[in-house]
Structures are given as structure tokens and as C-alpha cells.
């Protein structure tokens, strides 16, 4: 396929030859257009015979076929890839090859189609992924010689697809798709330790700050960990009711071993650093409530000192409730959200001015937002 009798440019991808039209490859101010204008000198001109093809590296034969398909596709064929039954792997291949060879309009079109596909309701990606409690996690790079059950193989497939989508969005600087994929992965990792590990690893590899903090926090709160040499990290007691953490099959880095999630030494360091920093932050916060500016009417109609004292007493009491203490010490966001719930249940039987109460509530929200924004910094190496 795509070895055309009237083609004018012969390309070699892996062990396959393609004969296509130079005019098609030179469209869209692509890299091929620039290459075709370069002087050849006295060397044998590449691309004019099967013996001297232009050799392309970095993509598979199937990926390049997908790309050539979109170059030559008719309008009704293009409509097929925008339908609910679109081949997502085909679109990913088109976008990646288009990005590599600077076909900007094709790259933008394919990424927009992918964005439209992944944001459909209900989500085709979330619906296609098996229940996280029904399989063991193995990343897509696992040894292919290892036998897998159908569920495990399916999990590998969708893990690989999620990884490709996030890497593609970052490679092409497509912010909407990247944000969409981060949101989808956050949804998955909230109910699955395995996807929390995937999110943690991708955030490290790609430098995704928006994913790093939530992913590390999720792993820290849910997992019983082991480092590369198998030393346990009991950051939290292993729950007997949390099926996501109740894992027992042996595996390699990023898998589970003896009921523990196996992580790298650098990830172990970041998790321990995050645990220490967040637990230390909580110790400081629980003794000193967030400050706020009193309403102007508070000093005129209320005793401002009594308003402040009421707020201080609430904070010190509610940060010591059983509901708060039942949450992991380093899960500062969980503890602050529980305090916010307690504040909403506080009622009107208080010596705080009404406007001050609203301002105090906003101060809790601002504190939660501040911790969320700074979360990646708590899980740093330094």
C-alpha cells in the first residue's frame, strides 16, 4: 500500500518501501519541502529509486501508513475518523508523525479530533478501562514474554494508550488535550493505586507539575510501599478494607510485591520528604488558625476580641476531632477539608460576627487552595 506507479519520491520505513508524490509531502511547509530544496551536490540523489530511498527512522510502518492515509484521504474518509468509532491509535500516529515532520495543519487537526474524542460523554476512555479492583497492574513496558490474563493484557493496553496520549499532548504543546488527560488520570487514580503510580511516574518523566502533587499524595495516602531493594515504607497502616492497596502478586518496579508497591529510590525519597514536610506543616497549622480581616461592623457592634477568640477556640477544637485524627497525618488536604465540613456544621450558635464567619470560611478555602498549588514542592528531592 502507498507504493504508487506514478509516485515521485521513494521512502524506506523499517523494511518497507513507499512511493508517493513529492508534491503531497511538500505540503503545509513541511520538513520534506525544505529537504527537497537542499542542494544534492555530486552525490546520488536519494528518493528516486528503490536502491536509494530516503530512509526515515523513528516510526513504524503502520504509523507511517496512517499518516499517508490522511494525506490522501477523501472527505468522506476523514469523516470516519471523527465518528464515535474512531481508531484512537490511528489518530495518535497521525499526530505524532505530523509533529515530527512539521505538518502543522494536520497535527492541529488530528489533535483537535483526539480532544473531541476523549471529551465525549460518557467518556470512551473511562468506560473502556476495566474496573481497577479487577486486575493487577503491569505497565506497558513489561516483559512481553510474561504470561498475562485477559484482564491484565487489557490493562496494559489502556495504560499504554493513556501514556501515549499524555506524552503526545505534551510533545505537541496542545494544552487543552494535556489538561483533559491530566483530569482523566486524576479521576482514575482517585479509585486505583495502580493509576496513581502511573500518574506519579509520568509526572516525574514529563515534568507535569499539575499531576505531580496529586499523584504523589495519592500514592502516599493509599500505598504500603517498598523501595527497589524491598525495604517496606509503612507511611500509613495497611488497610484491610482498601482493596486497591491489598495487593500480593510479585512484580518489578512499579508493580506490587508482597503486598507492597515497589518504587524507585528517587520516588521513595520524594514520598518520605513529602510526608515529613506535610506532617510538619500540619503541626504548625493546627495550633494557629488562618488569619482574616474582621468586618468593619464587627468592631462597631461586636467585641472583636471575642470574635477572634471564638475563631481560635473553634480551630483548636475541630483540628483535634476524631474525624480529623482518623485521617493520615500527612494528608493535610483531607484534614483541612474535614475542618471545613465541621465549620459548615458549626451553626449560628457562635460569638463570631456573621460577616466574619463568611470571611473565616473563605480563609479555610484559601488555605486549601494554597496547599494544593504548592503540593508538588513538598515532594521535591531537595
UniProtKB/TrEMBL annotation:
Query: Which Gene3D superfamilies does the record cross-reference, listed alphabetically?
Result: Potassium Channel Kv1.1, Chain A (3.30.710.10)
* UniProt feature, compositional bias: Polar residues: 238-248
Can you give the residue ranges of the BTB domain? 7-80
Where is the region Disordered? 236-258
This protein's source sits in the domain of life called Eukaryota
Q: What is this protein called?
A: BTB domain-containing protein
> From which organism does this entry originate?
Pleurotus ostreatus (strain PC15)
Amino acid at each position: 500500500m502507498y507504493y504508487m506507479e506514478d509516485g515521485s519520491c521513494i521512502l524506506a520505513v523499517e523494511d518497507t518501501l513507499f512511493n508517493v508524490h513529492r508534491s503531497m509531502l511538500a505540503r503545509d511547509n513541511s520538513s520534506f519541502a525544505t529537504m527537497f530544496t537542499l542542494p544534492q551536490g555530486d552525490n546520488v540523489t536519494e528518493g528516486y529509486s528503490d536502491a536509494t530511498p530516503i530512509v526515515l527512522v523513528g516510526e513504524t510502518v503502520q504509523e507511517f501508513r496512517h499518516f499517508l492515509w490522511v494525506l490522501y484521504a477523501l472527505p468522506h474518509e476523514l469523516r470516519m475518523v471523527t465518528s464515535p468509532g474512531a481508531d484512537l491509535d490511528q489518530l495518535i500516529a497521525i499526530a505524532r508523525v505530523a509533529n515530527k515532520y512539521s505538518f502543522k495543519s494536520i497535527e492541529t487537526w488530528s489533535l483537535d479530533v483526539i480532544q473531541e474524542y476523549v471529551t465525549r460523554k460518557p467518556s470512551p476512555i473511562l468506560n473502556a478501562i476495566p474496573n481497577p479492583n479487577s486486575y493487577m497492574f503491569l505497565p506497558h513496558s513489561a516483559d512481553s514474554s510474561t504470561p498475562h490474563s485477559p484482564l491484565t493484557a487489557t490493562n496494559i493496553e489502556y495504560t499504554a494508550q493513556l501514556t501515549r496520549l499524555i506524552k503526545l499532548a505534551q510533545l505537541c504543546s496542545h494544552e487543552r488535550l494535556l489538561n483533559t488527560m491530566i483530569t482523566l488520570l486524576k479521576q482514575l487514580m482517585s479509585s486505583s493505586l495502580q493509576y496513581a503510580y502511573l500518574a506519579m511516574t509520568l509526572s516525574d518523566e514529563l515534568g507535569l507539575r499539575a499531576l505531580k502533587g496529586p499523584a504523589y499524595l495519592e500514592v502516599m495516602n493509599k500505598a504500603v510501599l517498598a523501595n527497589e531493594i524491598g525495604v517496606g515504607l509503612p507511611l500509613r497502616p495497611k488497610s484491610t478494607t482498601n482493596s486497591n492497596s491489598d495487593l500480593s502478586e510479585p512484580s518489578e518496579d512499579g508493580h506490587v510485591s508482597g503486598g507492597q508497591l515497589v518504587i524507585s529510590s528517587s520516588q521513595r525519597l520524594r514520598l518520605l520528604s513529602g510526608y515529613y514536610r506535610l506532617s510538619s506543616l500540619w503541626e504548625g497549622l493546627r495550633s494557629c488558625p488562618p488569619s482574616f480581616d474582621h468586618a468593619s461592623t464587627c468592631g462597631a457592634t461586636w467585641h472583636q476580641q471575642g470574635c477572634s477568640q471564638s475563631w481560635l477556640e473553634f480551630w483548636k477544637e475541630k483540628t483535634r476531632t476524631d474525624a480529623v485524627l482518623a485521617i493520615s497525618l500527612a494528608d493535610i488536604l483531607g484534614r483541612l477539608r474535614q475542618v471545613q465540613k465541621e465549620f459548615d456544621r458549626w451553626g449560628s450558635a457562635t460569638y463570631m460576627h456573621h460577616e466574619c464567619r463568611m470571611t473565616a470560611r473563605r480563609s479555610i478555602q484559601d488555605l486549601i487552595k494554597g496547599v494544593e498549588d504548592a503540593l508538588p514542592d513538598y515532594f521535591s528531592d531537595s
